[in-house]
Specification:
Organism: Rhodopseudomonas pseudopalustris
Largest sheet: 11 strands, mixed
CATH class of the largest domain: Alpha Beta
Shape: elongated
Mean pLDDT: 81
Helix content: 25-40%
Number of domains: 3
Strand content: 15-25%
CATH topology of the largest domain: Rossmann fold
InterPro entries: HerA-like, HerA_central, P-loop_NTPase
Protein name: Helicase HerA central domain-containing protein
Strand order of the largest sheet: 9-8-18-17-16-10-15-14-11-13-12
Number of helices: 18
Distance between the termini: 46 Å
CATH superfamily of the largest domain: P-loop containing nucleotide triphosphate hydrolases
Structural class: alpha/beta
Low-confidence stretches: 1-5, 542-582
Number of strands: 18
Radius of gyration: 29 Å
């Protein structure tokens, strides 16, 4: 592509309507080889008296050609214009001076493209190059992308996870003080961010049960199923009293303080203050003892059984560790989760694959809610980017699917988070299943290949009219190719994400071969080792040769091993099992 102020015209404007225009294309014998390749998706420039209009070709046809001088016609979307300036030309979105009939249509030059995509300040990150001209770097405005939320959308296998790793690494490089919280659904980002990230999983997370609000603790106790109304009434009554009792215990040693009635403390079931599980059970037991009706006693007995079952399940140890001891550790939990202070690790990766499936939704709800509330009550002095992988699982379009409080928590961040320094990044392979209201709050979209018609139509409704025609390219995008729309980019742009270093590739990129290893040794010892690991994940016992025994954290501040819960397997025994572990 020639580096020139102007290129030979390959057509002329024959009609103008709103943000669109139609150009007549000259016969090929009058054109250069580059102009002959002027097809759908190519940027063009239209020279007017006072500016250069930048447009994109959305359709080319040889039907209904006006006059004999043109061989075809093209529909173009008007995107913005380059205005001359005292020092250098400047690009702006929108068109103030519309083209007129007969204005020359030219292939855009590299010089014009560089003016359009020139970084406007230091707050830009380099994410790749333009598909039309690989010599032009594509920049994204961090402030616009973060403060108005963003989404990365694409089918499985198109490079979506790699794109997320690239974006977050570039953001951390440009803004090392920004805190990032990533929900890692498939435990694939553990090694992507090196020593800048703290990896949390069920083996080193401490998330006390009393931080869960009423809806969330009910979801835990009833394993994701609807609660029994009679049991919920009992819980709603005794939880505030248990919180009041804990206040009594903490004040008991203070001389001169009057003993208060736990019912008069004024706490609700949602107030994030500690209470002890033993107090909760004793309060329920006390009420059960006063009842003479056997059928009513059964309700209380079932509720106690539910609490005891969950309390004794080793998979829930991250919630119920020290459940009967108490202690207000909320400040330590918030500090640890959201990296305050960061201590050189501004990012938290929450690996969700090892959590019991029944409580994943409620855990995500707690994390989203606490992220927003901390931003709210701190007046947004410490900004946080909350990245939600597989977002359609937590904020589904169908209100009958999923956990309502989780959708509500994500929705609050989407609608109000920017006021309090809590920014949202959504990652999804099924945007049609994502709540449209939440997606509409993301003002920068990175759309990768999407084959599903519903996904494409929802995406089309989420972008401006000028960019909607570009979405016809979505099904044919290559791996790592992306259409970027919105506030974070200068124009609706087809670009290619740059190569990501090997150490920053998500684990899913290191595809597991479908050909079994000849040295795997698929015998009964192999099966027994797998079963030992499987059972060990749901038991309290420590098994010999367990790599997790020496790695299990003794204190809250230690790092989690970047693997899913594994107990009972010597890592050197079977090579086949080593790959998923690390």
């Amino acid at each position: 592509m020639a580096e020139a102020v102007s290129a030979p015209a390959f057509g002329k404007i024959i009609s103008v309507r709103g943000s669109m225009a139609r150009a007549g294309l000259l016969p090929e014998k009058h054109l250069s080889p580059a102009a002959i390749r002027a097809t759908v998706g190519r940027f063009i420039s239209i020279r007017t008296a006072s500016s250069t209009i930048i447009a994109i070709i959305t359709e080319v046809s040889c039907e209904d050609v006006v006059g004999d001088q043109y061989s075809a016609s093209a529909s173009v979307d008007l995107l913005g214009e380059i205005l001359p300036g005292p020092a250098r030309a400047k690009f702006q979105r929108g068109v103030t001076n519309y083209p007129t009939i007969g204005d020359a249509v030219e292939m855009i030059t590299s010089e014009d493209l560089r003016v359009v995509y020139a970084p406007t300040g230091s707050d830009q990150i380099n994410v790749g190059t333009l598909q039309q001209d690989p010599s032009v770097i594509a920049y994204v405005d961090i402030e616009e992308m973060l403060s108005k939320h963003f989404a990365v959308l694409g089918s499985t296998g198109v490079g979506k996870s790699t794109g997320v790793s690239l974006l977050l690494n570039e953001i951390l490089k440009s803004r090392p003080a920004l805190r990032v919280f990533l929900l890692d659904v498939h435990n694939e980002y553990g090694r992507c961010f090196g020593d800048r990230a703290l990896v949390l999983n069920p083996r080193n997370l401490k998330l006390p049960f009393w931080l869960f609000n009423f809806d969330e603790i009910v979801d835990v106790l009833f394993a994701g199923r609807p609660g029994v109304p009679e049991e919920l009434d009992v819980l709603a009554e005794v939880i505030p009293i248990a919180k009041g009792l804990y206040v009594q215990y903490t004040n008991a040693d203070r001389i001169g303080l009057k003993r208060m009635d736990p019912k008069s403390v004024g706490y609700t079931a949602d107030t994030p203050v500690p209470y002890r599980l033993v107090d909760l059970i004793s309060l329920i037991d006390e009420r059960m003892g006063k009842l003479e009706n056997r059928s009513s006693r059964i309700i209380y007995h079932k509720l106690i059984s539910r609490i005891e079952t969950v309390r004794n399940d080793p998979r829930y140890a991250f919630m119920f560790d020290n459940a009967n001891v108490g202690g207000d550790t909320m400040a330590e939990v918030i500090s640890h989760l959201f990296r305050l202070p960061a201590n050189g690790r501004p990012m938290t990766i929450m690996q969700l694959a090892g959590f019991p499936a029944e409580v994943v939704d409620s855990v995500v709800s707690v994390l989203c809610r606490m992220a927003f509330d901390f931003g709210l009550w701190s007046d947004g002095v410490s900004p946080l980017l909350f990245v939600c992988e597989e977002a359609h699982r937590y904020a589904a379009a169908d209100r009958s699917i999923g956990f309502g409080p989780t959708r509500k928590a994500v929705s609050r961040i989407a609608k109000e988070g920017r006021k309090y320094g809590v920014y949202l990044g959504l990652v999804s392979q099924r945007p049609a299943e994502l709540d449209a209201t939440i997606l509409s709050q993301c003002n920068t979209l990175f759309a990768m290949r999407l084959a599903n018609d519903r996904d494409q139509s929802l995406l089309r409704s989420a972008v401006s009219d000028a960019a909607a025609n570009l979405l016809s390219f979505v099904p044919s995008l290559g791996t790592r190719e992306v259409l970027a729309f919105g506030e974070g980019v200068a124009l609706p742009t087809r670009l290619r994400f740059k190569e990501v270093p090997v150490q920053q590739l998500p684990r899913s990129e290191a595809a597991i071969s479908t050909v079994p290893s000849a040295t795997a040794g698929h015998d009964m010892h192999f099966v027994s080792a797998v079963l030992e690991r499987w059972r060990g994940a749901t038991s309290h016992r420590d098994i010999p040769n367990d790599p997790g025994v020496v790695e299990r954290p003794l204190a809250r501040t230690m790092d989690a091993p970047m693997l899913q819960p594994s107990l009972g397997l010597d890592p050197d025994r079977f090579s086949l099992l080593k790959k998923p572990l690390r």
